[in-house]
Amino acid sequence: MANIRIGQGYDVHAFGPGDHVVLGGVRVPHTRGIVAHSDGDVLIHALCDAILGALALGDIGKHFPPSDLQWKGADSRRFLVHCVALAAERGWRIGNVDATVVGERPKVGPHAQAIRETLAADLGVSLDAVSVKATTTEKLGFTGREEGLAAMAVVLLERA
Q1: Strand, coil or helix: what is 141?
Q2: Residue 110, Cβ density class (10 Å: 0-12 exposed, 13-18 middle, ≥19 buried)
Q3: Distance separating alpha carbons of residues 108 and 110, to the nearest angstrom
Q4: Residue 124: pLDDT above 80?
Q5: For the purposes of burial, counting CB atoms within 10 Å of the CB of 62, is it exposed (0-12), middle (13-18) or buried (19 or more)?
Q6: CA nearest to 61, candidates 96, 32, 36
Q7: What are the angstrom distances between the C-alpha of 103 and each of 15, 17, 48, 106, 142?
Q8: pLDDT at 101 over 90
Q9: For the segment 34-59, what is each residue's pLDDT rounded down to a tens digit?
Q10: Per-domain residue ranges of the chain
Q11: Which CATH number, 3.30.420.10, 3.40.50.720, 2.70.70.10, 3.30.1330.50, labels domain 4-159?
Q12: 1 pLDDT exceeds 80?
């Protein structure tokens, strides 16, 4: 029986009306909002998919379907806490996570520490087990045209 598992996740949401986006559970001021069924937190959605992938339990849409009205406008931190609990129920804990937000704006750097702290608390890990980075696509593609945001995440699960 393996003592570690790795999962990866990816999420995308389009910009729409609004004055902020939510990244890693942190409200980040922006000139646009996110179009989504929940709060549209691409970073947490990618992390959830990474955890669920490591557990071979499908994806976030299977667990929190956008067709289910109970998730309309939901705080994505609820999704993340649920995914961590699913891991714990199966004898796993989060070892570390590495996540990247992809987009021209908003700038993530000024909010990275708060995002890391929020994620560490929800994941039940120390701050040094949470990496959050950002990159642009040099104005290429939908993120480069500032039509939306994307995020990628990798998680390592360890036997509890």
Answers
A1: helix
A2: exposed
A3: 6
A4: yes
A5: exposed
A6: 36
A7: 11, 17, 20, 7, 9
A8: yes
A9: 999 999 999 999 999 999 999 999 99
A10: 4-159
A11: 3.30.1330.50
A12: no
**What is the C-alpha to C-alpha distance for residues 9 and 4, in angstroms, rounded to an integer?**
17
| DSSP at 84 | H
The pLDDT value given to residue 143: 95
Classify strands 20-23 and 33-35 as parallel, antiparallel or unpaired. unpaired
Paired strand residues for 133: 100
What does pTM read for this prediction?
A: 0.96
User: H or E stretch including 14?
Assistant: strand 4-16
Burial class (CB in 10 A: 0-12, 13-18, 19+), 49: buried
For 6-156, where are the alpha helices, taking DSSP H only? 42-54, 60-63, 76-89, 112-123, 141-144
